[in-house]
Amino acid sequence: MTDQPPNTTTDSGIPVPSDEHALTVGQTGPVLLHDFYLNEKLAHFVRERVPDRVYHVKGGGAFGYFEVTADVSQWTKAAFLSQVGKRTPLFVRFSVVAAEEGAPDTDRDVRGFAVKFYTEEGNYDIVGNNTPVFFVRDPMKFPDFIHSQERMPDTGMRSNNMQWDFWTLSPESAHQVTMLMSDRGTPRTWRHMNGYASSTYLWENAAGQKFWVKYHFKTEQGIQNMTDAESRAIRAEDLDCHRRDLWEAVARKDYPSWRLEMQIMPFEDAAGYRFNPFDITKVWPQRDYPPIPVGRMVLDRNPENFFAEVTQVAFEVSNMVPGIGPSPDRMVLGRMFAYGDSARYRIGPNYDQLPVNRPASAVHNYNKDGPMRYHHSGSQPVYAPNSYGGPKADQHRYHDAGWFVEGAEIARTAYEAHKDDDDFVQAGTLYRQVMTPADRDHLAGNIVWHLSQGVERFIQERAVNDYWANVDHDLGTRVANDLGLAAPAR
Ligand code: NDP
Predict the structure, then answer these.
(1) What pTM was estimated for this model as a whole?
(2) pLDDT tens digits, one per residue of 188-210
(3) Are residues 447 and 340 both part of a single domain?
């Protein structure tokens, strides 16, 4: 080791003479085009960005591990869950949904909660949020929902009017909007919120028995939120408070942790359950399917480089390992293609070769070449079938984790409504039975403030009469009173 820093080089490793001065003709003459180091420096600089994610742009993340704390082999054969005490390395990315890079961390919004497990049978990604439900239940409406949360096409401004117009015309959003307008819409830190896969997934055990499951990551730091007033005050002081908080906690070895709890529904229960269990706008009430603690996730290492690891990490809904599969939840099925596609566009077709995305297990297949390909299989055959020892898929050992019905008619329909399915019922339960009086006061106040920011009168009236009064008549009346509108009819 020497105290001298290394000499600067070009990207080809050639030592360069100056970090400060371009090559010129005399002291006052033109800059020379053959200054190869200046050219490379500027050319690389203008290519420093990759396209942003379309949403969940701003975020932060950390590495850590998952440890199994209960035997789940009766429900899934997933290798990384096979033994109590088993640890799997992982990376987690938290994010704000609508905000761009540089926007405040404190805005009222849902937070992304995405986990990548580097398992021995490939990467397993859970691409979830800090709420157990979602705004829409059909992927056809997903881009419309995101557009309504972003910026106006003419002014380039955010618009509460556009948000409330979309929400109040989409009654299935009521449950999620109730959570968003509660203080959980402004978490104090990423460490103090729960994570949920939100969608329903399939688990399958070694004997081929299938179960429907929901994932809940419960914060061991305890839930802590900001009030609306606090979040607006912090916004003025620190745009990056959540990113900073996570980084500083990990750096001081105050490692944040979450308990993974599973709701597990026997396969046959789904058809007759009182709610359609695949509808992502609904939870499974805990008295029907009590959450079972199965593991613990700890974040104990900060990224070394934000761009290489946090920006370039790619989570894919379709990354599921043997023993885990999708359910008929349309938000899972509809997202199975888009996430890998987004990474191919944003980073390039070989994004899985970057260290943060690279699986811990070996990759064997017939994909080849493409921009920036680094890992390769030498002279191995590039086609299947072949006579030269290339990889072979084994459908007896690995099969598609499905439930699909052969011969079913192709349809474009709503979900099958079960007995208790109604867009407002669970939001009403949350308001009346779960929220404390203080939670209810904050919820009403947050809704009123949000609806007062540039929302047209007719949309405010729709929000009162067709939305909040359906969630709860008392809540609709409170919102109407504070907005100076007529109370909703009984
Ligand atoms: P429970 O009383 O068994 O569950 C209520 C759950 O609500 C709690 O365990 C907690 O879940 C969560 N919660 C507590 N306070 C708030 C709050 N202020 N805002 C949002 N969520 C809160 O009843 P049910 O299971 O019958 O659910 C009733 C309602 O609770 C649902 O309609 C849903 O709105 C909400 N809820 C239910 C969840 C579930 O999985 N069943 C999960 C989250 C919310 P947690 O520990 O996950 O924070």
Answers:
(1) 0.96
(2) 999 999 999 999 999 999 999 99
(3) no
